[in-house]
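Incident log, structure service

09:12 report received: a user says their structure output differs between two submissions of the same chain.
09:20 pulled the input from the user's history:
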Amino acid sequence: MPAVMNILLALRSRDRTGEGTFLDLAMADTMFTFAWFGLAEGHATGRYPGPGENKLAGGSPRYGLYETADGKILAVGALEQKFWDVFCETIELPLPFRDDCRDPSATRQAVAALIRARPAAEWRRVLEPRNCCCTLVASLDEALRDDHFRARGLFQYGVVQGGRRLPMTIVPIAPAFRSGPELERSVAAAGEHTGEILDSQDSRAPPAQAF
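09:34 re-ran on a clean worker, output below:
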């Protein structure tokens, strides 16, 4: 993401000034981009959170993953009080655990025990009608068959290689910036042109010098 942002900025700069830009991008630098919540907490309190302490990294029972009775995963993101109240009411969390500030670990264990007691289908039935920022985690197979994503056209694009159609990497590019899925392009097989390229490089090489 930071690479794309910088490339786009460089293109805009070129349009404005007519000059290119050398971009120095490091993958390690971007970890701070995605640690914004922990950095904000550290700047505000003077202490940066340790492993499992950040609200979005295991420190809060309101934000996490809980296993159901049949091994599925329920993702909970009920950080705001209004969502947390609805979630607690829906799963019938005992009142002593609803104030998660007193003992977050105890509340998490109580929530986990309740979620583990019922299968995913039952949780889907009772939670989907409620506005409490939680959902069951779909497998990749389930996501690929989901009517919503199919209607968005995410899986329609492919390339042709050796008579076979191969799916393209799924990138959510707006339709206005890409050709229709019916316009499939052919790609070479791995190593198909290696000999040709090496031969062309040899032909351009300067003659060896005798010493």
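09:41 both user submissions now match this output. Likely a transient worker issue. Closing.
09:42 reviewer note: The first strand starts at residue 63 and ends at 67. The chain has a mean pLDDT of 90.
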